[in-house]
Amino acid sequence: MFAIDMMRPGVFSRFADDETEARYSRQARTLRLPFVRLYGVIFMIVALAYTIINPMFLGVTDNAELAIFLGLALLVCGGYIGITFWDDYIRYPAVDFIALLALSMLVGVINVVLYEHLSSLDSTLHVIGSINKLIVVAFSALTLAGRPRTFLAWLGCDFFVWLAQITSGQPKLSGVVYAVVSFSSGSLIMAAINLAVGRTSRAAFQLADSLDAERARNEELVLNMLPPAAVDRIRSGLLVADSYADASVIFIDMVGFSTLAKRVSPGHLVELLNAFFSHADACAREFGVEKVKTVGDAYLAIAGGNVPADNSADAAIAFARAVIAGVPEMGRGAGVEVGLRAGIHSGPVVGGVIGDSRMAYDYWGDTVNIAARLDANAPVNGIAISEITWLRARNRTGFGAPVTINLKGVGDVAVYQAQPLAEVGPAPATLAQGA
Known about the structure:
By secondary structure, the chain is α+β, with helices and mostly antiparallel strands. It is built from 15 helices and eight strands. Strands 1, 2, 3, 4, 5, 6, 7 and 8 form an eight-stranded mixed sheet that branches.
């Protein structure tokens, strides 16, 4: 977001980066190109209209003089339109500058001759009226940009009202004709401007809308990897480090994963892991448990961390049971025997974000290590919890008497094990052997 703000230029300034400025210029000129050609065609039509009506009202000398300048204007405009088809036209804005300046000078000379003729007929009022009306038309073209049908309807009504007004006094026919041609040509240009502004504004809206959608997707991805509070602190340049005194850490892994990996294809294995992790994600959302990460075939989650829990031990046990309850469905979907086991330990943990690339919110401490050790000692499709978790839990259904297990790096620990759940079915022998 900060980088985007830095790229925004002021009203009269350029982008700081020359490459960005060049890309902007090419894109803007490319978008305007169809309308540049349209303006040129309208100008040529108007010039031809003057060429046709001039002999009707002007003397031979004035008509000949105007014919020369109108012919030059047609030649310059035709050349201008033709050069826009040159492949490198977009790279040279000076072409527009030179062509438009030449056309402006020629139109100025033509207007002087016409003004002198209309002055002799006392018909300048209609020309002045046409110019004043075109000011309103220009304002309407910009105001109604993006709604071309509405603008054309407004333009039609305005034209007929204006025509009725200037013909009511029975003025000279030549004055009316020149006023109509002048007003009509200006209105056509305004209609083209209305289309051009509408197209560019829609393109800008589409770009901004796409950027907003992309930003929302990026925000969703970031919040999927990091807690919202951590994201806010990272954006503020603060260190993300938190301490949780009463959390329950859950490790769930697939039994006999190494053996299974040798039996099935890599694609099949990835499908199985995806089914396992997706099911665990759904259970985590259901029971208010925070997914921390996946490591190989292991799923690490925590209750009572960034996601508050009324009783972290109960939430952790309910989550683990729900995940293991999905074993039959995973087995049917994969076409192979599947077994899971879970280990849970409660206690203090430290959480935070380390590093500045591929950031993730992680947890550390003895509580995490003990939960991993308990996972390795859980029965197939069952759960092993520490005595601390057992005492913390209010729902102890399904756990047998404690057994003392020597955990590596920890020592003797009283462990409560939940036997394989009835709905899961008996532990597959091949998986039990591969544990």
